[in-house]
Amino acid sequence: MARARIKAIIFDIGGVLHPIHKLSTEADVKKALAGSQASKEEIDSTYLDCIRKLGRGEITEEGFWNDLCSTLGVEAPKDHGEILRKRLREDIIPFTKTFDLINRLKGKGYKVYALSNTILPHSEVIEKRGWYGLFEKAFLSHETGLRKPDLAVYKHVLSELGIKPEESIFIDDLEENLVPARSLGMRAVLAESPEQIAQDIDALISE
Fold this sequence. Notes:
Elements: E1 8-11, H1 25-31, H2 40-55, H3 61-72, H4 80-91, H5 96-107, E2 112-116, H6 120-128, E3 138-140, H7 141-144, H8 151-161, E4 168-172, H9 175-184, E5 187-190, H10 194-205
Parallel strand pairs: 1-2, 1-4, 2-3, 4-5
């Protein structure tokens, strides 16, 4: 029995369209907290809580710095708006072969989408580079209020696109984000390299 026709190919962004191992935005933020008397564990926990809230759009960027710094007993840096953006502008370098793949898929008539856990500064950099223009639609966590691997994210995307899980392919660089997708019946690709992504997608669309 033939498998369902693919109606949507959904790409993560960080780790798929560009490498993230060199990004050190977390380290840059924590440098701004150097005067805090809090323990490393408390700093790490507070940062994680605040960045996740920012990534779900629950707080503004101003709120992120206010919550982070007030909790840890330091003043918010005056240049906080630039701390994240400067590093992102410098370190986000495209995987050109993945961009070539997306354009090739679009040329074959496939509809391509993005699904990303992101924050406004990262999203602004991507937007200014025109990368979102590659996609029919981009589902961004700070706009939807949902972050992977919450099962609700995948259900939301499928509902918005009006497709069945088996009619989609989802590509992400984190296995934990693929588990819920597979549980719904979406076809999943773990991104390890642009070449491998292309091979795996080609294999899936040829089934």
